[in-house]
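This part of the workshop introduces the protein records we will be handling. A record pairs a protein's sequence with a compact description of its fold. Comparing a sequence with its tokens is the quickest way to learn the format. To make this concrete, we reproduce a full record directly below:
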Amino acid sequence: MKRIFAWFLAFSLALAAVPACAAPTRDPVRQDVVIEPGMQMLAETVLGAAVFTGTAGLEENAAPSQALVEAAFALGLYNLSLPHDGGDLMDGRPTMTAEEMQADYPLLFVSGAYSLPAAAAMAGVSRTQAGLTFDLTQLEDAPKIGVYLYSVSVSGGERVETAADLFTYYGDMGAEAEELPEDALTWLCHADMTLLRAPETAYGYRVISFGLSERYEAGMLDEWQTVENAACEYSVNLPPIFGLADDTAAHMLWQTADGSAMIRIDVEEKTAGITQLLQSWQGSHPGRSVSRELDFDTYYSLGDSDYQLWTTSDELNTVYHVTLQFPAERQDEYALYSEFIRNSLIVWGISNG
């Protein structure tokens, strides 16, 4: 019988067994409310179901598809987050009655209501006289979906806006990205999700809407390339989708095969102080702010389709300038890459790594 998640397994690669460095993650942006276990579990249940069913999003006021609901029920049973009184969880084939699913549905979603279908929408789920039976044994060997929530903000009233990077890994559910080796996870895609506070429910929140991005092109960090420029004394890690287009030591350039994105690293003489340099750059880029990490001698600015990074110190008479250009529609993805690039850039004359 076809597995529920066979299509997803086709996109997953075997992961190395030898531990590596802990996986880097995106820096948190804001956290208006504490990310409680219930919020995390709800995100993993619903967004995981979206990945497994190929659901790109759920619009506000729209009811989720039957397949999405069945996948969410399956994951909720598997991770023990959905209430279920039956003892059949032990054999991996639990049955949920129509009454039980009607009661559990509003724990997950704001819009719509559950009604028992004439037939199940997904392979691995079967319609029985009592309700629906779920074959959870298929989930044991399937890759798990993790959710790294890096932004949680209150948008007014009881609504909470979240932003996250989704990742896949093998092992027990509930693993945090920071606890996994970098060769044990794959960053999968970006997700925006709007929640409604529901403190009386099992999760504490319900899903109003969500949207998933296209699959990340360079989410396997152990495949990133390490570049060492001995002539200009720096090293950096770059996504494997970039190929070298110009190897001039002081002006190295990498591009994607289709030319839609590029990385350039210029090493130039510092003719003025870094403050004057940045002020001059901002003068020609009105509205752009520059963030500073003085402890690491770095300055950076993220735009709609580009990222700029400068590294220097008082002891250096040079400035290392990284420019990353990318399609505007993939900003969330490349914003993640930009953080990994910034944190990997090591200028040998200073301790910025």
